[in-house]
Amino acid sequence: MSTHRIAIVAMQGVQLLDVVGPSDVFAEANRQSGRDYYSVEVVSTSGSPVKGSSGLALIPDHLIDDEPGAFDTLLVAGDPLIQERPLPEALLLWVKRMTEHTGRFGSVCSGAFVLGAAGLLDGKRATTHWSQAAEFAKRFPDVKLEPNRIFTKDGNVWTSAGVTAGIDLALAIVEEDLGLEIALKVARELVVFLKRPGGQTQFSTLLAGQIAQKTPIRVAQDFIADNLAADLTVGAVANRVGMSERNFSRQFKQEVGMTPADYVESMRLEAGRRLAEDTSIPLKKIATDIGFNDDVAFRRSFSRRFGTSPAAYRRSFGT
């Protein structure tokens, strides 16, 4: 079996786990399969070493000017500040040219911004880090963004969610290339899930409550967080902070980035997720404690948000 060349593109400021995580999966796949099937090569836009966002550095195997030849798989690693940095035109042209001769290509985390800017995701389903999904959707409206997925495969295009999701993506690639048994052995050795249940939002703490700047909205957010079982309809919360329902809804959406109703449901589900994970409280009681009418409504909302039922989530993550 011939060697499968994988290029991981790492820009200055790269999130190193976006590079190292998938690399370790492919290296472990070689060990578990007993053959050197994967060859991972890091490609940089310019400069050596490449300094990561953590301050650590890595030595790339190639620069894009080196003409390193064709790769079988090309992945673009992310950069926490990618929204703030101009993307080098030379990089976009290189990636676009290389993918014309690459059987499979994709990105890890915010590396999707590079593929999007190169026009390689238009009309495709794609995923990126949950915190950058809104900006991604704004910049690339022709991409079918799926913000809650751990990773997305659309034909030969593979994109993953934030940071550690690159490991999930790499495991799925190993399963496609070398089969389920090898992928499962790799996952066991690395002590990770072969296939995580749910989507990436289950692994992010709801930080929207720290966004609002205007005092009435912050007061409303504090009340919601402390009184999940209370009447949290828009009218009830607006009345509590002395605002009209219409003005409250408008300002809340402007400050927080979601409607009051969506925010309340998110807070309730985040609380339900934590309780399912950290306690042995019956799920029916959790449902009423966090403001759902019954466990059926809780289960439906939980499954819609996280892609798995509360019971299945507890079996996987419960302590």
General description of the model:
- The protein is of the alpha/beta class.
- It folds into 2 domains: 198 residues, Rossmann fold (3-Layer(aba) Sandwich), CATH 3.40.50.880; 110 residues, Orthogonal Bundle (Arc Repressor Mutant, subunit A).
- The chain has 13 helices and 11 strands.
- Strands 5-2-1-6-7-11-10 form a 7-stranded mixed sheet. It has a two-stranded antiparallel ribbon with strand order 3-4. It has a two-stranded parallel ribbon with strand order 8-9.
- Helix 1 packs across helix 6.
- The longest helix is centred in the last third of the chain and has 19 residues.
- 41% of the residues are buried.
Blueprint (SSEs and pairs):
Elements: E1 4-10, H1 16-33, E2 38-44, E3 50-51, E4 57-58, E5 62-63, E6 73-76, H2 89-99, E7 104-107, H3 112-117, E8 125-126, H4 133-139, E9 144-145, E10 151-154, E11 157-160, H5 165-178, H6 180-190, H7 215-226, H8 234-240, H9 245-256, H10 260-278, H11 283-289, H12 295-306, H13 310-317
